[in-house]
Amino acid sequence: MTEKQVTREVFDAVMVPNYNPQKVIPVRGEGSRIWDQADKEYIDFAGGIAVTALGHCHPRLVNALSQQAQTLWHLSNVFTNEPALKLAQKLTESTFADKAFFANSGAEANEAAFKLVRKYSYDHVGPEKNEIISFTQSFHGRTLFTVSVGGQPKYRKGFEPAPGGIRHAEFNDLASVEAVISDKTCAVVLEPIQGEGGIIPATPEFLRGVRALCDKHQALLVFDEVQTGVGRTGHLYAYMEYDVVPDILTSAKALGCGFPMGAMLTTEKVAKSLVFGTHGSTSGGNPLACAVANEIIDIINDPTLLKGVSDKNKRFIDGLNAINAKYGIFKEVRGKGLLIGGALNDEWQGQAGRFLQAGLAEGVMVLVAGPNVIRMAPSLIIPDTDIEQGLALLEKGIEKVVSEGSNT
């Protein structure tokens, strides 16, 4: 039987339409370059949405996966395995945490965290201390629980009734947190940089204030570092830049660099509430994922690499500001490390997708963070020459969109 050529149209024929992928189908990648079915080359500023933190087909990751694939793939959690134990040791030695739980994604890591904060409060206070505070425009995953904690109603629409006991405050507005926090609050959940919400960094004052409020009300502080973690901001985890330590941290995306991998990290005291039988994941912490993640942590948790992230940030920011000086489309270029957002000004509101498409046509892959922000989350080791060439291609795309005029 001859295998049929697959095209983008096959997606519409056989896949559930919850995604709307681009017309091109990438077939191979190397470093920060990708090639599609027609062998057209692209520079990758998207990084699989902040996932491929070491680029495509990094030789050390290929080797780690290949070696593990020849020894042991899966056991289930009836047994433990060496790669999982080694990874848990590395993560706890490198962070505030004492304990780790492994899952397959950021949503699963957050699901575990949200269950844990309620279980911890149930154990220490009682069932009445169950409220979770999150923030408008936040994003924490697509399960019913995580999408309910997330602060974007459009993702909950049609799936109600949503889980209760969840309140939303305004990001970077401490007074709004003070207005809703109480002794019924079991946790406050936040992203150090709101990703899907528009690449909005938390201020140090806000993070310190939220930590103090949590302490006052005996509530846990959860940092969702699914997008900001594993080197993305120039630190192994973003919390390390601030004098603020969470009680629980979630990690995924770059932790697997494309292999499904998630983790929840927490303290000894809090971890005690997830006793035997309270939570689990069939494939979470499997040897393949953990072998890859071990190598990733070894590579990224390196001062030279992390400093390089900050250096590359400046190159991106300077380049985007130079483009903006010519075309005047951004009201702000913001972010940290290699999580960068170009917030469109009033004239170009709602049109971020046009710039994404124009960049793709020129040969550079970027992202959006909602309809008003062009987002970039490339490899942490993207060569400077690729940054310069990619920005030049993006400028060509921006020039074309500007010449066509705004749709507003």
TrEMBL record:
Binds 1 pyridoxal phosphate per subunit. Pathway: Amino-acid biosynthesis; L-arginine biosynthesis; N(2)-acetyl-L-ornithine from L-glutamate: step 4/4. CDD domains: OAT_like (cd00610). May also have succinyldiaminopimelate aminotransferase activity, thus carrying out the corresponding step in lysine biosynthesis. GO terms for molecular function: identical protein binding; N2-acetyl-L-ornithine:2-oxoglutarate 5-aminotransferase activity; pyridoxal phosphate binding. InterPro entries: Ac/SucOrn_transaminase_bac, AcOrn/SuccOrn_fam, Aminotrans_3, Aminotrans_3_PPA_site, Class-III_PLP-dep_AT, PyrdxlP-dep_Trfase, PyrdxlP-dep_Trfase_major, PyrdxlP-dep_Trfase_small. This is Acetylornithine aminotransferase. N(2)-acetyl-L-ornithine binds at R142, S281. The keyword Cytoplasm applies.
